Amino acid sequence: MPDPASAAGQDSALERAVARVGDRWTLLVVSALLDGPMRFGELAAALGSIAPNVLSQRLKHLEREGVVVAEAYTARPPRFAYRLTASGQELAGALRLLAQWGAAGDGTDGVRHPACGTPMEPRWWCPTCAVAVHGGTGAGGDGLTYA
User: Fold this and answer.
1) Which of 12, 35, 81, 109 has the fewest CB within 10 Å, making it most exposed?
2) Is 34 within 8 Å of 89 (Cβ atoms)?
3) Which residues of the chain have pLDDT under 70?
């Protein structure tokens, strides 16, 4: 029988993450900024069909969440370049997993190893125990504990 405390921990951890970055445009903004700082116009061009007011709202939200930092590059008029914080950079792995999952849903292999072309497989690794963690008996069926 699943441990209710583990299920609650998983749900609250996921809820916190979704509250911080849980919509389409927010994740795409973070993804665009993984390559380095960008100005507002550059971000808008990189994202394509995002409305300027939506981009502005998402950037302000990401700033409040500590995921993005706005750095002024002119005072008059005020203009900013946006870059990811260390916390924002940590989303790279989650975005890769989402992209891999999305690729599997459209029938493609997703990310391939550049050296040999084999499709990559994401794995959870415990650095203390030096073992890979596979599906198990945890609340999410993954054998993991969520803080």
Assistant:
1) 35
2) yes
3) 1-11, 107, 109, 135-147
Distance between CA atoms of residues 133 and 115, nearest Å: 25
pTM for this predicted structure? 0.71
Phi, psi (degrees; rounded to nearest 5) at 126: -95, 110
Q: H helices within the chain, ranges in order?
A: 4-21, 24-33, 40-47, 52-64, 86-89, 91-105
- Looking at residue 55, its pLDDT comes to 96
pLDDT at 5: 46
- The residue type found at 57 is Q
CATH class of 4-109: mainly alpha
pLDDT attached to residue 19: 80
Domain ranges of the chain: 4-109
3-state secondary structure of 4: helix
